From TrEMBL:
Family matches, as NCBIfam families: PHB_DH, PRK12429.1
Family, similarity comment: Belongs to the short-chain dehydrogenases/reductases (SDR) family.
Organism: Saccharothrix variisporea
Gene Ontology MF terms in the entry: 3-hydroxybutyrate dehydrogenase activity
The keyword Transferase appears for this protein: no
GO BP, sorted A to Z: monocarboxylic acid metabolic process
UniProt xrefs under PANTHER family: 3-OXOACYL-(ACYL-CARRIER-PROTEIN) REDUCTASE, 3-OXOACYL-[ACYL-CARRIER-PROTEIN] REDUCTASE FABG
Gene3D superfamilies assigned to the protein according to its UniProt record, in alphabetical order: NAD(P)-binding Rossmann-like Domain (3.40.50.720)
Name of this protein: 3-hydroxybutyrate dehydrogenase
Amino acid sequence: MNSVPGHSPELAGRTALVTGAGSGIGRACAAALAAAGAKVHLVDRDEAVRAVAEELGGAAHVVDLAQGDPARLLPTEVDVLVNNAGLQHVAPVHEFPPDRFELLQRVMVTAPFLLARHVLPHMYARGWGRVVNVSSVHGQRASAFKSAYVAAKHGLEGLSKVIALEGAEHGVTSNCVSPGYVRTPLVENQIADQARAHGVDRDRVVTDVLLTKHAIKELVEPDEVAHLVLWLCGDHAAHVTGSTFTLDGGWTAQ
Ligand code: NAD
């Protein structure tokens, strides 16, 4: 993606690890990092990650990030860590199942912490590293019925800032990318469910239900998120740290 004829690809010699790489945004990030010359470790609990890794020439790790310390099953020699795996559960607070609340925190906050503490010593030793956390507009804004997701993404934003402060003297940056609604299986399934529930067609669900808060009434594409992630991994972004980059069609401008 970023290679120019006659020049080394931007991430040649770097090793990346992407969680949730079997699908959606994580898959697009893994593809962009591989195209930029990185060796990529693709992590997912879903076996589908094996086929994606084969297609990209990367290494697959079928690991459930919610179980124990998932980092012990993964390599330490990682220069680019993309914390992307995530899931949603929708229910009012007073009916929210505590075990689901806990699961979302484990996958979207605790696992990124465990992975960061696992790979930061290698990044510090090399004097170079990139941590990119796939947050969400819900890292800055709340929506009703999404308590676990909103709490987790706000937590991830805080973790990202602390890693940025501690990594600063070691050449390690940490940032969040925060999309609005992205065209991934996670959202495609919601569209189908909502179309059935509301008795309207899929296009109406996208514009009138999902994208009410987007000024641009189109879903973000996974490749757009991957381009931003890749940009944050370049040497040109060495002073970009502790920040959040929204890709939300204007949602948070309101
Ligand atoms: P997706 O469902 O297509 O992909 C998520 C991947 O994470 C899946 O492959 C899933 O198997 C994996 N995963 C979930 N739990 C896991 C676990 N315990 N261990 C290992 N892997 C696990 O979803 P997506 O839309 O690509 O979401 C990726 C990230 O982007 C998530 O953090 C999500 O919160 C965030 N995000 C998505 C949207 C959107 O509209 N799609 C918007 C904002 C933020």
